[in-house]
Amino acid sequence: MTNHRAAVATASVSLLLIALTGCGGGGTAAVPEPPAEGNVLDAADVLTAAQEQELDALIDEQNSRTDAARVAVLTVEDASGSIEDYARSVAAEWGVGDDGADNGVLVVADTGERELRIETADGARETFSDDDAEQVIEDVLEPAFADEEYARGLTEAVGQIYGYAQGQDPVKEPFDWGLLAGVAGGAAAVIGAFIWWAVAHSRRRRREADEEIRAAEDADPDLRLTEKQREAYRKYRYSHRGGDAVSNPAVWLPLYIANPALYSGGTGATASGSSFNGGGGFSGGGASGSY
Predict the structure, then answer these.
(1) What residue spans of 97-221 are helical by DSSP H?
(2) CA-to-CA distance for 262 and 245, rounded, in angstroms?
(3) How far apart are CA 160 and CA 94, in angstroms?
(4) Residues 267, 224, 205, 53: is their CA dihedral positive or negative?
(5) Distance between start and end Cα atoms, the chain
(6) What is the average pLDDT across 125-150?
(7) Residue among 288, 251, 290, 260 at smallest CA distance from 85
(8) Which among 77, 114, 108 has a CA at the least distance from the CA of 91?
(9) Cα dist. 93→40, 244, 280 in Å?
(10) Phi then psi dihedrals of residue 227, to 5 deg
(11) For residues 218 and 152, what is the distance between their CA atoms, to the nearest angstrom?
């Protein structure tokens, strides 16, 4: 009987410890797997498929134009605990940014707790400071998410982050409020035109690549690219438009099989368009907000 009571007491203590550590620790949620394709994971399901594709196209476009930043986007329903700790864990485990450059930026939106975070790697902070991140959250993300304009907020935020990273500081607020209204309207028009151009440009490049694939497959019935190979060819043709680029998928395919990194959109070790290239340097830079 004594042994039985001791066993019951031990089990009770163990269950109590499990309950306390499980409920009182305030730990963050588990890090999700990175997106299988692209740079956007909409786990909270606040974007349509078209909106997600357009946002990813904007990131692809900017990654092909500059290495000043590599941006990724994550929406979740419940990050649990500190969104700063959660965003830092995700950014580090996903490897946002280029290896050795510390140029990654992760935008996280927790729709359950209505919290926002821009996590910035140390290298990116040289041009996109913590104050800049705070301004993007306050001026763009918070009002857009409060109005449930998720796609607009994320798209404009991503555009501004790349703008900051390339040294394109926004116009400072003037004392003349009439002038401010004009400047704000002009800036909104410029940002909107830039986003429209980037998305339209990406779509046109994609159509051109698909037409080249279709023509090659019509000419050679034995040539059938997998969906992964099609996407790799689209990325390759997006970033390789010169006279030395391979524009025939039948010629490109064996080159891609021999060297996927070089013939999938990149210029060497990493693929152009991807923001997940083994980046690090996430020591706590960025800013948080709520809506």
Answers:
(1) 130-136, 142-146, 150-165, 177-219
(2) 12
(3) 22
(4) negative
(5) 59
(6) 96
(7) 288
(8) 108
(9) 15, 37, 9
(10) -65, -35
(11) 40
Each residue's pLDDT tens digit, 173-200: 444 556 566 666 666 666 766 677 667 7
Nearest to 150 by CA among 82, 89, 73: 73
Angstrom distance (rounded) from CA 259 to CA 137: 40
Other C-beta atoms within 10 Å of 193: how many?
A: 10
Residues linked to residue 278 through DSSP beta bridges, in sequence order:
98
Q: In degrees rounded to 5, what are phi and psi of residue 60? A: -55, -45
- Say if CB 158 and CB 106 are below 8 A apart: no
- For 40-171+277-290, CATH gives 3.10.310.50
> Which tens digit of pLDDT belongs to each residue from 35-72?
988 999 999 999 999 999 999 999 998 998 888 999 99
Provide CB contacts within 8 A for 138, sequence distance 6+: 289
DSSP code for 171: P
